[in-house]
Amino acid sequence: MKIIIIGGVAGGASAAARCRRLDENAEIIMFERGPVVSFSNCCLPYHISGVVEKEETLVLMNPQKFKMWFNIDARVNSNVISVNSNAKTIQVENTVTGEVTTEHYDALVVSPGADSVVPLFPGLEKIDNYCLKTVPDVSKIMSFIKENNPKHMTVVGGGFIGLEAAENLRERGIDVTLIEGTDQIIPFVDRDMSYFGQAEMVRNGVEIIIEDLVEAFDARKVILKSGKEIETDGVILAIGVKPSTGFLKDSGVELNERGYIKVDDNYQTTAKDVYAAGDAILVTNQLTGQPFPLAMAGPANKQGRLIADRINGRKINNKGYIGSGVVKLFDLNVASTGLSEKMLVSTGIEYDVVYAAPPGIVGIMPGNHLVYSKLIFEKDTGKILGAQFATNGAPDKRADVISTAIKASMTVEDLADLELCYAPPFGTGKDVVNKVGYIASNLNEGAFKQVRFSEVYDLLETGEQVIDVREAIEYEAGHIKGAVNIPMSSLRQRLDELDKTKPVYVHCRTGERSYNMTLMLKANGFDAYNVAGSYEFVKAYEEMMSYNHKNRKDIMVGNCTACAGQLAEEKSA
Amino acid sequence: MKIIIIGGVAGGASAAARCRRLDENAEIIMFERGPVVSFSNCCLPYHISGVVEKEETLVLMNPQKFKMWFNIDARVNSNVISVNSNAKTIQVENTVTGEVTTEHYDALVVSPGADSVVPLFPGLEKIDNYCLKTVPDVSKIMSFIKENNPKHMTVVGGGFIGLEAAENLRERGIDVTLIEGTDQIIPFVDRDMSYFGQAEMVRNGVEIIIEDLVEAFDARKVILKSGKEIETDGVILAIGVKPSTGFLKDSGVELNERGYIKVDDNYQTTAKDVYAAGDAILVTNQLTGQPFPLAMAGPANKQGRLIADRINGRKINNKGYIGSGVVKLFDLNVASTGLSEKMLVSTGIEYDVVYAAPPGIVGIMPGNHLVYSKLIFEKDTGKILGAQFATNGAPDKRADVISTAIKASMTVEDLADLELCYAPPFGTGKDVVNKVGYIASNLNEGAFKQVRFSEVYDLLETGEQVIDVREAIEYEAGHIKGAVNIPMSSLRQRLDELDKTKPVYVHCRTGERSYNMTLMLKANGFDAYNVAGSYEFVKAYEEMMSYNHKNRKDIMVGNCTACAGQLAEEKSA
């Protein structure tokens, strides 16, 4: 059996190693276009700041090790230029010598990854510009920085790579402007959760421009569609990627209109004995049944492994993908799993959303923090569809739990029932996941009604009754303009101050006290709504708007933080 | 509806608040024996070190707040001395005035918690001694410390409270000896995982004595069964707890022989309209169907809430409990979920175990660390039964994921399929959970055979072939005496150095390379076994044995740590 693998990073390298484990006698050849195999693409941005100090550590394996450890023939600088799936051959060009050779295969694994998209911007040649997808890319960036000592750099693109590039440039002391064409950074969460990340970036000195596009470049200058000009010393382009599948033209391997490889549940392409993995393929979404690209290291590794199983005649069980991700932005971490609202729009799935900001660890412990949380679930069934978390603590552990719950088709009621590890340095007696599960269960069974925090603006403008049930000391420290303060501690005695003929919208700091008061008001005959997300989410929204200098409602008075941390409801143990 | 709640901490307070949310008009009275309601018992040890600085912050709520916020009548210093479930009355003694009153109830919630066990040790009165279960307990400890400035204290008991007490005393600069009667500390994990915690405690200056018991106390002295005497200034007794259920004698509420309250799936006791929650009840184990006590804050809170649902006529869904826990021991964190081997012994369930020590985050990132992992699963079905993790990183997130998987009756194969959040500061492309899932799947389907790391001792004594496939530089830095070094990079070429007529036992640092080589040897006709846990687990075992000064095999040469961190297998990305 002769197995050829195209691509020597995540999916390819995993397929190669597993093929060897399953068949000691197979001939395995792995071709990699670039000069190195199996490098840590996810760590590349961290070399810019020096967090990953040495460039050579970014390379995880080399051809010698592949040979010695796995008896795998790994060939670098080897660009596969065509595949003939009828003849079962590939043509490979040695990018150093230019020599072209033909290799026969019994099974072919295609894991070519994706290339950076670099549009033909006018004037691009007049400015130092770099991508950040490969070890040579980061090498060039480091040479530029060391030789030119730039004071300011511009990052184009607010996805994973752009965000991590911006953070690591800033950690190096370089001023950074990040430009994003859509209306939010951190595309794997919804806009309302991206606020927290954007605010953290700005607090750490990154200028962020959203809803604007690069029009052109000039010497030390970026010119935006809006007319705005940015003086800058260099540019990192992290606009997006396209699958590196040009060599599959006329191969018999079917691609979609954007060049992604179509595979079946066995990761087999439309060509016999040709399998594909990684950033260049379309996987099936477990929740929607729709194909989508998922450029993540974990899934690529898994696909490589499963293809090796398949080539060796084993059955594989492909349940589809949901997508999980996390990003560190200075002291804030943002994690997500499953479907976002953005992704749900086109699916026709009827869903509901809850927001909460429970404490991540016991409130009296040092380092206590809130976990800004959003949970999305299917209406009526309560089936969990997705979740997003932003916090100075550990959003990844909450997203991981919910990812597991989604894989198991659990409902919001199941989340309330989970037994999660607790000790004061790690969490709270009822974890964030339990709490969002409780809130969603209550909402789903109709125990209370809610409006989103983002609806508060309109409610206030139209003169609706918005009641802030935090204690007076909190209200004085900071509140939403137009909200009337009737503390939870006296609301039962002051019901006559409310207009029973109109709806009552109740908020507190995080939504927990206002939930209690919403139920109390309902029991007393009021048409009561909890403001999901409450003061904390409105505050984050306002902070982001203050950076964007437009659409700002400016409805906040003061800023309440510390005093609220002492409140009993948040010291749960 | 008049609802009486006995006990004002986790279960009781949760039941009270939820009862109010579900019925604005109910009369709710909560009786608490102690002087405070709703305190953070889990945070008590952290006040000793000053991590939780102010004693008053340990108290989360007070009767005034219960009244103002929830319209709940919370009465402290109110000791319920009897329950008459026929008459639906309780008798309450005011512990300040001695006055006894009778109260009628429509529904009764019993959540009395547990008391510290204090055996009648000879001479106990001659030494300053304290428990650590209540706010007054910790008050007394703090007064003792401030007035006497002790140089050395002794903690009796190696469970949660004893361990946290020892850590926090040490953080205060006090020398500590911890005495544990069984053969291990950290009872919620198996002995082989407790090694890591014991080693960390000793590294931080806590003397640990296991398999010895307190015989008697004397002035400034602890006398052990072994004859050993310890000079000490004071003692904290954290030996265990017994349910505080004496007042239920003749109440109609059935207890087991140890005083735990029996409840049905609705948390109803054997007496009509009497429900029970928290540390004093027996819950049903989801995996074994057996009743067991589970003294944890999260389950207590949940039970209180569900009882409130039940009292208000709602159906509840009790799927049973599995138990999850975590403890911080200086820089090491230990987490567990589900069944341990100790618990499995008496169940008759056929199970298998895998060990691994994969990296917790990408190996080239600062702060990289290993996650010592143990996964337990049912033979053949692959159903997950339990998991234990010890690491300087985040064991809780791995245990939480597996806890969720157990709740969903997942198999080890499902673990391999999970999509967990990854970015270099948070994990690796294949997470620890995926990896233990892969290993267990392979073992369960018979792809390879293994022996446990603890079996290496006997194998070496009987002269078996034990092969260390780490590279020479690692072997030279430290190895197991008697293991023969044939590095993975040359093993294929040196097969003739092995005796094919005898089994070959293969180890590396963490079990990953040796797994590859076990498969290679098998393919070449050898009877090969992977040493599960490999060098890292043997090293931890030896370190613990060096502290216990007995049963030590002394089979380690040197200590290999840093060099191995650079190995490519552990830089997975």
TrEMBL record, chains A, B:
InterPro entries on file: FAD-bd_OxRdtase, FAD/NAD-bd_sf, FAD/NAD-binding_dom, FAD/NAD-linked_Rdtase_dimer_sf, Pyr_nucl-diS_OxRdtase_dimer, Rhodanese-like_dom, Rhodanese-like_dom_sf
Chain coiled-coil ranges: none
Top-rank taxon, per record: Bacteria
Necessary cofactors: FAD
Database matches in Pfam families: Pyr_redox_2, Pyr_redox_dim, Rhodanese
SMART domains on file: RHOD
Domain annotation Rhodanese: ranges: 460-546
Example of a GO MF term: oxidoreductase activity
Keywords, ordered alphabetically: FAD, Flavoprotein, Oxidoreductase, Redox-active center
Similarity comment: family membership: Belongs to the class-III pyridine nucleotide-disulfide oxidoreductase family.
PANTHER family named in the record: NAD(P)H SULFUR OXIDOREDUCTASE (COA-DEPENDENT) (PTHR43429:SF1), PYRIDINE NUCLEOTIDE-DISULFIDE OXIDOREDUCTASE DOMAIN-CONTAINING (PTHR43429)
Stated name of the protein: Pyridine nucleotide-disulfide oxidoreductase
